[in-house]
Amino acid sequence: MVYSKFDPISLLLTVSVVSAAITQYTAKPLINPSNSQFGPFIEGAAVDDEGNIFAVNFGNATSLGTLGQVTPQELFYDDKFTKGTAFNALRFFIKKDKTFAYAADYANHRVVELTINDEDIISRDFCTDLKMLQPNDLALSRAGFIYLSGMKWRPDSQVGDGDLWVCSPDGIPKRLEVLGRTNGIELSPDDKYLYLSEAFNRNGSPVSNKIWRYDVDSKTGSISNKKIFFDFTKIKTQNIDVDGMRTDIKGNLFVTRNGGQEVLKMSPSGDILASIKTNFSFGTNIEFGGSNGTTLFIVGRCGIDTRGHKAGCVDTWENDAPGRAWWILQDNE
Predict the structure, then answer these.
(1) Does pTM top 0.90 for this prediction?
(2) I need a surface site. Which of 45, 172, 257, 269 has the fewest CB within 10 A?
(3) Residues 6+ apart with CB under 8 A from 14
(4) From which residue to which does the signal peptide run (predicted)?
(5) Cα 295 versus chain centre, distance
(6) In terms of DSSP H, where are the helices of 109-238?
(7) In terms of Cα–Cα distance, which of 136, 165, 188, 201 is closest to 6?
(8) 323: DSSP letter
(9) How far apart are CA 25 and CA 263, in angstroms?
(10) Which residues pair with 89 in a beta bridge?
(11) DSSP bridge pairs for 25
(12) Which of 283, 209, 311 is nearest to 27 (CA)?
């Protein structure tokens, strides 16, 4: 979830100039303000093993404890038991032929585990620590390690406004690092690398956006060898926030630019391969789904007008490879 102040017109002009040499695509609208059943805080796009896409905030602006399926639009889960639940991220996982979903509740500093049995869903607190800033977004490894980002938004950022945590497969939380404002988080398809975004504000606006890459020990969940993957000063768009991120099975990293009306496709070496323009400015999260796992679903707040400000939109775009999450859920190595 990103909170920032900016001039959308100037940002879009900036992006169009610096992206002139990058291959341009335009996503197709799937859900718009006139037919949306999602609220403006739509986030946490996630795929199940059948290729169905889900997101948080099914309902209106106050429905923060809900999860919904994108097509058809219907309620998937509503947490009526924990006061103030506010979901912001979601991932699916199959273990011993059972399907689970893990949802990040930033208001209660926890990850909720949902055990899915046909139409019956059983929930429990899986991993919680009041010292977590949120969590905001999560990445899930094949071994069951859950990596969590978090943020504290304020006009002038400092180190400590973001953090990185890991929850073990047994639900034990551990803080790995303290950073600036963190948001997007994802693993490479082979689980060898972890990507994490970090941003800083000055006078209420973003002035720095970077993506870090860590080496990952898949057996212990530990991280090391922190390196800069991409600094957006390189393309003069450091004033546009990074939000949700996902990888495909080729190792390409897809990066949502919240307020920039685009998703960037980046190679494993950090080269920008393409810009995917959306039909709404405030993209928050992405995930690959569909029957072949190659359809990129882009979710976010519809717009700045009265109707768009209150609804969640979804666009789609076809990739040349399946997404990492869908691929793993098919029991692929």
Answers:
(1) yes
(2) 269
(3) 236, 237, 239, 240
(4) 1-20
(5) 16
(6) none
(7) 201
(8) B
(9) 10
(10) 104
(11) 276
(12) 283
What pairing do the DSSP bridges indicate for beta strands 312-318 and 295-301? Answer: antiparallel
Residues in CB range of 221: below 8 A, 6 or more apart: 141, 143, 145, 166, 168
Distance of CA 237 to the CA centre of its chain: 19
Token digits of residue 95: 């273990």
Can you tell me the distance from the alpha carbon of 193 to that of 196, in angstroms, rounded to the nearest whole number?
10
pLDDT tens per residue, range 34-76 = 999 999 999 999 999 999 999 999 999 999 999 999 999 999 9
Beta carbons within 8 Å of 118's beta carbon, 6+ residues apart: none
State both tokens at 246. 């996902």
Q: How far apart are CA 88 and CA 222, in angstroms?
A: 24
d(CA 98, CA 115): 8
Strands 295-301 and 181-187: unpaired
Residues in the chain: 333
Name residue 297's amino acid. F
Q: List residues bridging with 111 in a β-sheet.
A: 104, 127
List, for residues 134-193, the tens digit of each pLDDT value: 999 999 999 999 999 999 999 999 999 999 999 999 999 999 999 999 999 999 999 999
Q: How far apart are CA 196 and CA 1, in angstroms?
A: 14
